[in-house]
Write a structure and sequence with these properties.
This protein is mainly beta. The chain has one domain: Beta Barrel (Porin), CATH 2.40.160.20. Helix content is 8%, strand content 57%. It has one helix at residues 5-24; strands at residues 37-52, 55-56, 63-75, 78-94, 110-128, 137-161, 169-176, 184-197, 202-212, 228-239. An eight-stranded antiparallel barrel has the order 1-3-4-5-6-8-9-10. The radius of gyration is 21 Å and the shape is elongated.
Amino acid sequence: MKMNKLAQRVLILCCVTILFTGANLPAQNSQGGTNPLSFGIRAGFSAPVITVDNQPASINRIAPVVGGFAQYRVLPWVAASIEVLYTQYGGNNISPLFIYSPDSPILNNLVKTDLNIHSIEIPVLAKIGIPGMSGAVKPYLSVGGSAAFFLQADATNYFLVNNGVNLPILNSANNIVTSRINGYDFSGIAGTGVDFQGDKYNFSIEIYYRIGLSDLNANVNAYAPSYRTNAFGLKIGIGL
């Protein structure tokens, strides 16, 4: 997966933050700690896809997920959490009419278009476990919503070029199309995971599904349908 300079800078910043946070997380007490408020880091990946009428209209791409979280345990088996994550929306091999007009010269010899949207996402989740369950391993269900704010949208276009000697070849070009999509997204999220309570740190692994609720067609053009972005994902967390 190719990333432009913006994605690289955001990932470097997130990684430095994670390393600094991980190096300074204090240890719990010998009983594993009883503080209902905890903090930590999250990392993983998602597979976003563009949908029309909730049906896939592109091919999934693989996107990084990295950031931090804060969690408050309301009951031994119920917790509320908020996360701040860098991730990516979009999909591969989308219809170019999602972002270009039918008379755009960029459509000449265009073979396919991939859409990559860099975002800061803020999920707010409720985690519900099994009442009365004890032990270091605790499964849970998570449900909630997310607000994503888009930093930049890139369209990678692949053109068929005849070099005059051999068979036609594919050339790619990156085009910033931030103004051609909506600047935010609201989503519903549901998932399932497992918490592992350790002596010093807690660990978690979670799989989730995000369904987009916002129309990304910013201009509401007659030639472009309403489209949204969904994703399957996996996150691993480390916290105290």
